[in-house]
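In this supplementary section we document a worked example of the pipeline. Step one takes a protein sequence of length 359 as its only input; no multiple sequence alignment statistics are reported here. Step two produces a three-dimensional model, which step three serialises into structure tokens for compact storage. The input and output of this example are shown verbatim.
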Amino acid sequence: MALTDPQNTLAYHNSRVLTSHRNMRHVHCAKVAAALQAFRDKDQHKDTVPETEALWFYGLNHGMALIGANRAPLEPLSDWENEFVRLYHEKMAEQAVRAFYYLLWICIRESRHNQSLAKDAPKMKELFGDAVTNFTVSIKGGESGISAAFVTNPPNATIGTYVDCLKWQFYNCKWNGGYGGMKWGIVTDCLSRFVDGEFTAEMMLDTIWTLSHNNGPIFNKGEFFGHYSPNLIRILDVQRSGQIPEAVLCDVKVAAYAPSMLVNRTGELRKQFPGKLGAYVDWETVEALGSVHKYPNEKKHQFDKHGMSEKAKEAQVKAEAQAKAQAEAEAKAVAEHAENWFLVMPGVEIEIIHRKAAA
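The serialised model returned by step three reads:
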């Protein structure tokens, strides 16, 4: 598939920048820093609402899945489908730029909490070179000091090497329990996979809304995005069950974050794909599929008005079967341990040797 494919086909759109794997690890940090600063200087939406951006992504992405299931790659799209797909790519390309700069900014900023930097510097020089290590060691300042230093005086290295160093620090250095560490390593993994071209911009966006650090979702740093609300978790819980369009159209708390254009496009989706969207958010299914929060009031209202849906019954049966299988596996492991180990005293066990009887 290539950009030479007919422009009213999924093949053409799937070859656009949003859905293409592009390795940028060779790009110099100075070039990335200049682009980041230019974005910040022109940014008219510094308080971009993460809940709204997540709804845009998941809502339009749901529509893309419906269209993709209905059209072959080179089959001409209808005018409505083509317009919808174009909106998705244009809107998400904008989102991806903000998401990339945000991930880079907050990962750099968090790295200032490294408590073993002096001790680990020789190893960092061995792995990532003098330029990256000297930059990291030399930076001083508060929350934004190190990020600002990256913009004004970036290390003489590629962005791939610098991000590799950030990730290595989070996984290997010493951190206070409330800062850095493995959870920030996971956040940096998303950044790293995008820089390396393993993640497309679309894949990065699909991941970023779900990322959390030591104290909750990552959208609390006051740069590029406004502070998240508890409703971000509600949106993610609904998304896990594949019901973002239903939430945009039917759930008051979620719909409060949905711009009118998104509401209109979601309503059009319902008309274009009859029977594919539900008439309400099935909260039983939301919980059965592992929601972070619980929704007792929503479930009661749903049951009083609609009863339990077939989808919720299926999800509940599946969840119960998984719980039963896990309990049985745990019981089996306990039984096998008891058969093969003998407790001598609290905290001390010896393995039992089972000898076969002589023939």
